[in-house]
Amino acid sequence: MSNYDSELDARISEALRAFDYAHLPEPLALVSQTFHKVAATVSAFLPDSHTKAMCLEHLLIAKDAAVRCKVADMGRDLVDVRSEIK
Q1: What is the CA radius of gyration of the chain?
Q2: Which of 3, 17, 7, 6 is nearest to 57 (CA)?
Q3: Are 70 and 26 in contact, with CB atoms under 8 Å apart?
Q4: How many whole angstroms from its chain centre is CA 30?
Q5: What is the pLDDT of residues 49-83, one digit of tens each?
Q6: Contact between residue 51 and residue 61 where contact means Cβ atoms under 8 Å apart
Q7: What is the distance between the alpha carbons of residues 27 and 70, in angstroms, rounded to a whole number?
């Protein structure tokens, strides 16, 4: 495997791991779960490429924004939510 392939595999794997949601409190997990499903679909149907990695990384940015939006909607600050993480 070339360095190019190793770098690509690492980017895709790292991005996919970031969509895990089991550690989140239920309201945040429900938001994150939707993005996890999209990431799994992207991973399954698109060929490995730097563009696929970029797609997953941008989806991750969107997921993070959606979770932060839910945190704000819940009327809590991030410190309180972190205390609920299992």
Answers
A1: 15
A2: 17
A3: no
A4: 13
A5: 999 999 999 999 999 999 999 988 887 555 565 56
A6: no
A7: 8
